[in-house]
Amino acid sequence: MFRAANFVLVPACLSLLLAGCATELPIAERIARATPAVTVVARGETVPVGSANQDAADDPAIWRNPALPQASLIVGTDKKAGLYAYDLDGKIRDFFDAGRVNNVDLRAEVLVAGTPRIVVAASDRNDIAQAKIALFTLDPDSAKLTPLGTVPAGSGEAYGICLGQSEGTLYAFMVLKDGTIHQVALDLAGPSPAGQIVRTMELATQSEGCVVDEKTQRLYVAEEDVGLWRFDARPTGPTVPIKIAAADGKNIVADAEGVALADGPGDARYILVSSQGDNAYTIFSASDEAYVGRFRIAAGTFGATEETDGIELIVGDFGPAYPGGLFIAQDGIQAGGAQNFKLVAWDDIKAAIGLAP
Questions:
Q1: Fewest Cβ atoms closer than 10 Å to its Cβ: which of 229, 233, 264, 266?
Q2: SS3 for 351?
Q3: Is residue 268 very low, low, confident or very high in pLDDT (cuts 50, 70, 90)?
């Protein structure tokens, strides 16, 4: 409450001028104030992570098997314990005890000591004073996660991470909890991984989710109480952020969390953001960064999603259940007390929003 002389101003979140004010409202009121969202239902879900009754499941990454789409794999973090590998039925194929790893991303066909591999990178926060990138390979047949080692990524608490390639080099963008972003050039040619911070970008407050659009060389980062920002992802590019959308309680309700890219055939490409404060997901056009629409995952055969942290979307054939692409969202409130990830067909989202098929 703010007091001035004989006048009392009660913050009613009018225009949501106060950062974080929206999240102090009851969830029903946050939903009522936000831009309306259509609903979809999940077609699948993963087995819950092992850390029960905790805020534990956090961020997913997807590897699409181009030869046998239904044999694609999902990697998800339990930020209290390590990394899971799942199949598309949501069954656990592997678990690696990596400790406190927060966000995750992966890239296929990366040369590791001269051999093309699926490389998984996780933000390692086992030491909250010194950020690291934990690197693994993912075997496409056994789904086994094999550690390569860790790479230093600057002083501070590791939080978000995303990968992007530029001019033949693979970069990891390490988003520290305080909003600092280090671009780290990864070298996987030798017997152990190495990395070099090539430049640093800054946001003012706590940030996490990010994604790289390699076609446009743009880096998108969610500053939780502020909104969605864009940086130049090139290692020699400017470091000044450009604001794409505010977490104003309308299109994005704080926290702004996970960020994903719909990079499919043709020109219809989209940026998706988890609007955690009202259990929704917001879509922007990647071409002009204009608002497109919003959706929620409602209860159906599988439960609804609430308080989503990380999201991921890969466009393409994933077999009969997900023929046009796979969207995955962390579910922050799960019956039974252990969080998991929900799987949604991209075709269902496009149909609900009214996007071109």
A1: 266
A2: helix
A3: confident
